[in-house]
């Protein structure tokens, strides 16, 4: 039987006679419970659809509050169960961080570095993003450029070519405290890669790839890593903080591609064209792509046509801008 969980779009497969909480534990979910500490009711959920068996030969129906530690599904069910995390999923935290750097690094891009509060270490995966909050404005999403191993430091790369992002930089320069929610995104590394990586970044999408590269280097990953960084004009190639050091890494292959500048002496064209020119069997690689939804889907289509299995490409655009 299957139990769907809201919010979060999660689901559990339940064996015959198995309680919902036992199934969640068996499948590696982090579910609210405190039975062993004598705190009952922590595992409470609301049954939205279906029927469950409860102690005392009772039956729970839609609309009932149930204790998942003793509820056994009688059919496929849907629950509203707050606080459940899928295997490997990290809890979102709200933090007030100190702004320790806010400086231009070329191409109208600013490097922002935030120090997280002392105490419980922040957990996120390389390649995830955060939401930066400001009073009177919607939270703004930015990729985390720092690797998870960089203790108490979060780095962002912010392009200031529109009023929204310029307002973010102005706010950080004047307030020196940034409140963020973190982490978000599933286009990330939850474990060391077992395949060669192809990282494809447009503009400040490089921030996401910086986090992944730095994490791989810190872990001693030996798989080949191919970085394709694309911009429209060479003036958009900002000063990537670690580029010179990356050039010394034996398994890291760096490519800068300019699409709209005829007199650029380096590589020209579109990112997916460069990838297809360089790599033969795309089925051997894992791809992470960062850019606008249009760029991401155009890259997906081109690489699938060239032989990449669709499931081997990750991009956050798939979640926030489904085609």
Number of helices: 7
Separation of the first and last Cα atoms: 31 Å
Q: Structural class of the secondary structure composition?
A: alpha/beta
Strand order of the largest sheet: 12-11-14-9-10-13
Q: What is the CATH class designation of the largest domain?
A: Alpha Beta
The total beta strand count reads 20
Radius of gyration: 23 Å
Task: Summarize the structure in words.
- The chain is of the alpha/beta class and 323 residues long.
- The protein folds into 3 domains: 2-80, Beta-grasp domain (Ubiquitin-like (UB roll), Roll); 93-184, Elongation Factor Tu (Ef-tu), domain 3 (Beta Barrel), CATH 2.40.30; 197-320, Nucleotide-binding domain of ferredoxin-NADP reductase (FNR) module (Rossmann fold), CATH 3.40.50.
- Helices cover 20% and strands 33% of the residues.
- The protein has helices at residues 20-26, 163-175, 206-219, 243-246, 271-278, 293-305, 317-320, and strands at 2-6, 10-13, 44-49, 52-54, 58-60, 65-67, 72-73, 77-80, 93-104, 109-115, 129-134, 137-143, 153-159, 177-184, 197-202, 225-231, 252-258, 267-268, 286-290, 313-314.
- The chain has a 6-stranded antiparallel β-sheet. A 6-stranded parallel β-sheet has the order 18-17-16-15-19-20, sandwiched between helices. A 5-stranded mixed β-sheet has the order 2-1-8-3-6, covered by helices on one side.
- α4 (243-246) links the parallel β16 and β17 (252-258).
- α5 runs parallel beside α6.
- It starts with a strand and ends with a helix.
- The mean pLDDT is 93.
């Amino acid at each position: 039987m299957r139990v769907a969980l809201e919010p979060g779009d999660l689901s559990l497969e339940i064996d015959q006679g198995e309680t919902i909480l036992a199934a969640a534990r068996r499948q590696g979910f982090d579910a609210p419970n405190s039975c062993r500490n004598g705190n009952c009711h922590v595992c409470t959920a609301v049954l939205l659809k279906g029927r469950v068996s409860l102690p005392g030969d009772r039956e729970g129906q839609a609309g009932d509050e149930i204790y998942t530690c003793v509820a056994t599904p009688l059919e496929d069910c849907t629950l509203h169960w707050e606080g459940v995390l899928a295997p490997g999923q990290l809890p979102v935290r709200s933090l007030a961080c100190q702004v320790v750097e806010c400086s231009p690094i070329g191409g109208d891009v600013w490097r922002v570095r935030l120090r997280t509060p002392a105490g419980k270490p922040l957990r996120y995966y390389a390649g995830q993003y955060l939401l930066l909050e400001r009073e009177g404005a919607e939270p703004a999403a930015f990729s985390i450029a720092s690797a998870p191993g960089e203790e108490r430091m979060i780095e962002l790369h912010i392009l200031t070519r529109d009023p929204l992002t310029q307002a973010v930089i102005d706010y950080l320069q004047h307030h020196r405290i940034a409140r963020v929610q973190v982490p978000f995104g599933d286009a990330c590394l939850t474990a060391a890669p077992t395949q060669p990586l192809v990282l494809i970044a447009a503009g400040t999408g490089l921030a996401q790839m910086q986090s992944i590269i730095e994490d791989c280097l810190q872990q001693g990953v030996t798989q080949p890593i191919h970085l394709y960084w694309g911009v429209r004009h060479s003036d958009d190639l900002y000063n990537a903080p670690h580029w010179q050091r990356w050039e010394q890494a034996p398994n890291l292959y760096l490519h800068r591609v300019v699409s709209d500048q005829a007199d650029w002496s380096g590589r020209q064209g579109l990112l997916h064209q460069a990838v297809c020119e360089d790599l033969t069997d795309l089925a051997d690689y894992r791809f992470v792509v960062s850019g606008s939804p249009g760029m991401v889907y155009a890259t997906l289509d081109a690489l699938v046509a060239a032989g990449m299995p669709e499931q081997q490409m990750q991009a956050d655009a798939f979640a926030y801008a489904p085609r």
